[in-house]
Amino acid sequence: MQRTEISSLGEFALIKRLTRDFPIQHESTRRGVGDDAAVIAYPEGLQTLVTTDLLLEGIHFDLTYTPLRHLGYKAAVGSFSDIYAMNGHPQQLTCSVGVSARFAVEDLEELYAGIRLACGRYGVDLVGGDTSASLTGLCISITCLGAAREEEIVYRSGAQPTDLICVSGNLGAAYMGLQLLEREKRVFAGEKGDFEPDFAEHEYILERQLRPEARQDIILALREKGLRPTSMIDSSDGLASELLHIATESGVGVRIYEERLPIDIETHRMAEELNMSTTTVAMNGGEDFELIFTIPLAELDRLKELDGIHIIGHVTSAGQGCYLVTPDGAELRLRAQGWPDEAEE
Amino acid sequence: MQRTEISSLGEFALIKRLTRDFPIQHESTRRGVGDDAAVIAYPEGLQTLVTTDLLLEGIHFDLTYTPLRHLGYKAAVGSFSDIYAMNGHPQQLTCSVGVSARFAVEDLEELYAGIRLACGRYGVDLVGGDTSASLTGLCISITCLGAAREEEIVYRSGAQPTDLICVSGNLGAAYMGLQLLEREKRVFAGEKGDFEPDFAEHEYILERQLRPEARQDIILALREKGLRPTSMIDSSDGLASELLHIATESGVGVRIYEERLPIDIETHRMAEELNMSTTTVAMNGGEDFELIFTIPLAELDRLKELDGIHIIGHVTSAGQGCYLVTPDGAELRLRAQGWPDEAEE
């Protein structure tokens, strides 16, 4: 593969090259890349949602097994997921990258190809960003702007006792994908000759780790049914941690049921292979980008008409605490183990 | 000084502690820190400006001589400067930090104290951000949102032939401050015993490097006089580079005059001490956060009523190119040397 040194282009030519194939899709994007700031004008009545993420090599991703294109896609999608978790729609994205000398222009083009794919698929405009040198690997900063009508925005703070607690898709798959990749990396490090990583029958969990999707489909389906969650959050830090956020912000308790946790067969199989508890994986595994939300009990019938949504428990009063109930009736207090790599060294 | 390990708090408690003393100042900030995204609602008729910066230790700042409080202040102010350069007003800020194990909670509190000072002084709300581990030093990602009426926004692209080219304040001071700090760092590295860095009579350039201000005052003064620049940019990458941006985006040429470059006496003195050309310093030194803008010739009289603004040249047609004219009439073509640390390794 060709290798063009970043220094041979200079910052401004590089940004121009990286961002040239991003079409502007929204009328609200008045000015994108190329001025001191982007200019955005949402139609009257829409509020602006803004979320930002910082992704660091060696902490949030490992380039040993993460193709740059996938990394770009995932960075963008993770950001969109935060906007969907507010019941909004992502519209604009900025991306800044710091890169050390081991990266070539072609590497950055791969990263941006992934971002472009995500932007195209979710209908988001790239409107800004810059590149700079880094002493130590790759560093990605992503900011996403989204739009929502005031009355549609869903906070973490609106859950009410007796609300149903729902989860989209399934839990723990991305984390199991990560564990598989880490295992194969360790095996690879011990190998001398040719090495073929063993990913057979693990395609689903790998995809969940390496090329996740944000649940735009759930947001659209809820809207179509006229269902508005009372509270919502995305599962980037794991179910337990996210439920505790909802409980704290809403001033309520939660009770969820172990046998109701949606877990894919591949997640089960991988957890077994690694001697891990499937429940722990589902409760604490991060990066699933599923939506966790609460819906008034009165909406149960309409809720049941939706595909891919699982009712895992219900909201209680704050005094009743936050618990996972096992099939034999034991009650385990939820703890925010969270995603083990954040703010912990 | 007390040292609280970041790991002893956990990510969520840390963010809560760092952001607790940031009052919300704007009615437009509907939700700040603490949900999946911040929610912002500007009054009808205002458009949203968004700018993002990524600051990496060892590339954009050196903690040997940069106090964390100053770094926080400067990071925020640099971001505000981009919004002013659009003729807008900064309103909301998000800040994400990656920190390695050598940083304590108290260090981050210093950084945030600087951000808080800047937010207070410029009237900006902190609305989001997160902290994560980093393998290698400090990494700061800043995003600023600003508001402006559509008809007030000034792009890089509006300069017209015969417009006057103006610069606020003076140029090259921040760069000379940096060179002084770098020199004293080298001297310090060679010293064995007690060492007292020699900063006497260099207070101004040090302040320009370590605690710069954004030119909110110029934006307000222009508005008060009813003056709207045809194009504008801030001088974060150096005058030559910024003028070339205006020329390219506006499809014009520029001609500026060496003897008109505003240069402080301390900048002159430091350049002399270091055997550097003062003109080169003024043309290429970055981080001054001054405003560079163009004003129609017909507004000359009103422009002259403003303090602290220097007319350094005029806009020409594109065919006439971009030149610096020396006192003896020689014409030097502008080159975008830029800020030497960006995208060059």
TrEMBL record, chains A, B:
Signal peptide: none
UniProt: Mg(2+) 2 binding residues: D53, D82
Residues binding Mg(2+) 1: T52, D53, D130
EC code(s) of this entry: 2.7.4.16
Domain PurM-like N-terminal positions: 34-147
Pfam annotation, one family: AIRS
InterPro entries assigned: PurM-like_C_sf, PurM-like_N, PurM-like_N_sf, ThiL-like
Pathway the protein acts in: Cofactor biosynthesis; thiamine diphosphate biosynthesis; thiamine diphosphate from thiamine phosphate: step 1/1
Residue numbers binding Mg(2+) 4: D36, T51, D82
GO BP annotation list: thiamine biosynthetic process; thiamine diphosphate biosynthetic process
Residues given in the record as substrate binding sites: H60, E287, W339
Keyword match Metal-binding: yes
Binding, Mg(2+) 5: D237
List of residues binding Mg(2+) 3: D36, D82, D234
Residues noted as binding ATP in the record, renumbered to the chain: Y112, G129, D130, R156, S236
Lineage: superkingdom: Bacteria
Reactions accelerated catalytically: thiamine phosphate + ATP = thiamine diphosphate + ADP
One example GO MF annotation: thiamine-phosphate kinase activity
NCBIfam families given in the database record: thiL
Note: Reaction mechanism of ThiL seems to utilize a direct, inline transfer of the gamma-phosphate of ATP to TMP rather than a phosphorylated enzyme intermediate.
Family that this chain belongs to: Belongs to the thiamine-monophosphate kinase family.
PANTHER family per record: THIAMINE-MONOPHOSPHATE KINASE
Protein known as: Thiamine-monophosphate kinase
Primary gene name: thiL
